[in-house]
Design brief:
Strand order of the largest sheet of chain A: 3-2-4-5-7-6-12
Largest sheet of chain B: 6 strands, mixed
Number of strands of chain A: 15
CATH class of the largest domain in chain A: Alpha Beta
Oligomer: heterodimer
Structural class of chain A: alpha/beta
Strand content of chain B: 15-25%
Shape of chain A: globular
CATH topology of chain B: Pyruvate-ferredoxin Oxidoreductase, domain 3
Distance between the termini of chain B: 21 Å
Number of domains of chain A: 2
CATH class of chain B: Alpha Beta
CATH topology of the largest domain in chain A: Rossmann fold
Number of helices of chain B: 5
Radius of gyration of chain B: 15 Å
């Protein structure tokens, strides 16, 4: 049934349908509503799951790891400082090849203390071996969460998946949500290396230089294999439920001379800027990067490229702009905008495109040497 | 129809966010696209707050805040002492006030309906606060922004107490457009 829900409620709703055996979580703004809602589902009996209210995010991920290693489906949710408090265990989850699904509501890191949207929190986890997807609507938050379980648990992936959505802009925005009857879309979980008390074995034991690299390579091989699994999962989702998703959402790019690239809600707002620029006679298009890990290929040849980063790597640059400069050999106009929830409108985005200066970096709202 | 944008002024705890949600839900029941969102601040009980609704015939891709609203809805007129509720108003914009008398709102077409009085008469009071967000849906239906059927459907989806429906119908009757 078509209803109205926040991004947080949409994620909780998808989790209820995916029915994880264990949810371990600690509340943090702006994610709290997800775990509150799941706790309510568990209390009311709508979700037959063990809910573990832990004392910290580090313990939340540790509990998910402990549960997952027994071969059951697990979920947690966090944001910003909570994500970084669990950082050690985030690495462990991927290295132990545990298909945990986590919703991360993107929020800036302090100080200054800030609860609003920014992608730096999740980008700092980019080298952990987690798959990362970024959504741009309440419906997409729901759909991506359902798909995350199937992708993570696929036998050729067995890596955890992080579903990211912009704090407040999505987590607290009320939008149409169409729930689906998932049927057998997510097959029962089968973890080949699940612990088995009748066959005791050691886990996480000392791994010497002669073997460690093999485990790392195996993670990368699975990360590469995940591309086909993501594609197949998204295609099956479209076939069953009618909503199509890709690695990158392109908008009016076919004949575009200039492409503006962004993630999350800014990627949607960019589409409105594209319409505005097209009316002015500029052949503009937009690309919204959905999957950040594995990082996608973008067809940017022969085009001017404007990248909006809602993130920053100090001493290096906008993470997406610098990544695309390396992977696609382009010279983008790099715009740093939306940090800590800074308001960025489609008019602003159209302005970035009009005034693009390839190879340069603009900090939106910063004048001179401020 | 071009996108229709509503800004709702109230105080924390008065149900402005729920009013936005109900309006969006009613618009969706009318077959339109709609989104509702609060101002992304640290909401505090009693402090002036705003929430927003966008309604369109097409999927809504704009996430930035509403700068030029088509309709200003003031659930608590006392916020006008501290907030310029007309800020950014479209030239053809309208105002709906909770109150027994329309006021001069710098010449903008202004309607008023006594939502507080309706809520008190229906004994729709929670924690000492009269419920304004269900009767206001009746007023918005009278203004043609949503249909009365969808207003009632939206209220029923969120609240089981039928006095909310009566209140919405009363506001519909009492508002002169």
């Amino acid at each position: 049934m078509l209803t109205v829900a926040t991004g947080n409620k949409a994620v909780a709703s998808a989790v209820k349908q995916a029915c994880p055996s264990v949810v371990a979580a600690y509340p943090i703004t702006p994610q709290t509503e997800i775990v509150e809602q799941i706790a309510e589902y568990v209390t009311s009996g709508e979700l037959k799951s063990q809910y573990i209210a832990v004392e910290s995010e580090h313990s939340a991920m540790a509990a998910c790891i402990g549960a997952s290693v027994t071969g059951v489906r697990t979920f947690t949710a966090t944001s910003s400082h909570g994500l970084h408090y669990m950082h050690e265990m985030v690495n462990w989850a991927a290295g132990a090849r545990l298909p945990i699904v986590m919703a991360n509501v993107n929020r800036a890191l302090g100080p200054g203390w800030n609860i609003w949207a920014e992608h730096t929190d999740a980008f700092q986890e980019r080298d952990t071996g987690w798959l990362q997807v970024y959504v741009a609507s309440v419906q997409e938050a729901y759909d991506a969460t359902l798909m995350a379980f199937r992708i993570a648990e696929h036998e050729s992936v067995l890596l955890p998946v992080m579903v990211n959505m912009d704090g407040f802009l999505l987590s607290h925005s009320m939008q149409p949500l169409q729930n689906v009857d998932i049927g057998d879309f997510i097959p029962p979980i089968h973890l080949p290396h699940a612990i088995d008390t009748s066959h005791p074995a050691g886990y996480g034991t000392l791994t010497g230089p002669e073997d460690y690299f093999r485990l790392r390579w195996d993670m990368e091989r699975s990360m590469r294999d995940s591309v086909a699994v993501i594609r197949e999962t998204q295609e099956d989702f479209a076939k069953r439920f009618g909503r199509k998703y890709d690695f990158v959402e392109e908008y009016r790019c076919d004949d575009a001379d200039v492409v503006v690239i962004a993630m999350g809600t800014l990627g949607k707002e960019a589409e409105v800027a594209v319409d505005l620029l097209r009316k002015e006679g500029l052949k503009a298009g937009s690309m919204r990067i959905r999957w950040f890990r594995p990082f996608p290929h973008l067809d940017l040849s022969g085009r001017d490229v404007v990248v909006i980063d809602r993130d920053y790597s100090f001493g290096f640059g906008g993470v997406i702009a610098r990544s695309l400069a390396a992977t696609e050999r382009v010279t983008p106009f790099s715009v740093i905008a939306g940090l800590g929830g800074q308001e960025v409108t489609y008019d602003d985005i159209a302005g970035f495109v009009r005034d693009r200066r390839p190879g340069e970096e603009l900090w939106f709202g910063v004048n001179g040497n401020v | 129809m071009a996108m229709f944008e509503v800004r709702i002024h109230s105080r924390g705890g008065q149900g402005g966010v729920t009013a936005a949600r109900l309006l969006a839900l009613a618009a969706i029941r009318d077959g339109k696209y709609a989104v509702a969102f609060p101002f992304y601040g640290a909401e505090r009980r009693g402090a002036p707050v705003v929430s927003y609704v966008r309604i369109d015939d097409h999927p809504i891709r704009v996430y930035s805040q509403i700068r030029n609203p088509d309709l200003i809805l003031v659930l608590d007129p006392s916020v006008m002492d501290v907030v310029d509720v007309l800020q950014g108003m479209k030239p053809e914009g309208r105002v709906l006030l909770n109150g027994s008398e329309p006021r001069d709102m710098k010449g903008f077409p202004t309607l008023a309906v006594d939502l507080t009085g309706i809520a008190l008469r229906e004994q729709l009071v929670v924690a000492g606060n009269p419920i304004l967000n269900t009767p206001v849906l009746g007023a918005l239906a009278k203004m043609g922004i949503i249909t009365l059927d969808s207003a009632k459907a939206a209220i029923r989806e969120m609240f089981s107490d039928e006095r909310n429906i009566t209140a919405a119908e009363t506001a519909y009757k009492e508002l002169t457009v």
